[in-house]
Amino acid sequence: MKDQIIMLLIGILIALGGWNLTQTFSLSTTQAVLDDKVDKLERGVEKLQDQMDDMLKVDEEIMEQHEDLFNQILNNNNNTSSGTSYNYWSDQMTLNRKMEEYKLILPRSIRIWSYNY
After folding, report:
1. What angle, 0 to 180 degrees and rounded to 10, lies between the N-to-C axes of helices 2-78 and 88-101?
2. Taking the CA atoms of the chain, what radius of gyration do you get in angstroms?
3. Are 104 and 54 in contact (CB under 8 A)?
């Protein structure tokens, strides 16, 4: 009788050990999958941050060009006989090329109109 009880306890211990092992394996697999998803999300966030940085650079260039435009307009108003003028459309073409370098795609309604001016 004692032998049967000991065999029963050993069987229960082996069954619990097997169950514990399967649960541990399941949890580690789930954790690995979640870690992979987190890594993908982090890479996506880094790409978005890089794109935002590029867009901020373009915005800064636009602001500088507008400041130059306003300064030229003010200088032309103050000194009309100087003969110098600001070529706004040339700067816009340069800006468009830089934006293409950054591979920024703007909606058609935001794009600068035409190079024919």
Report:
1. 170
2. 34
3. yes
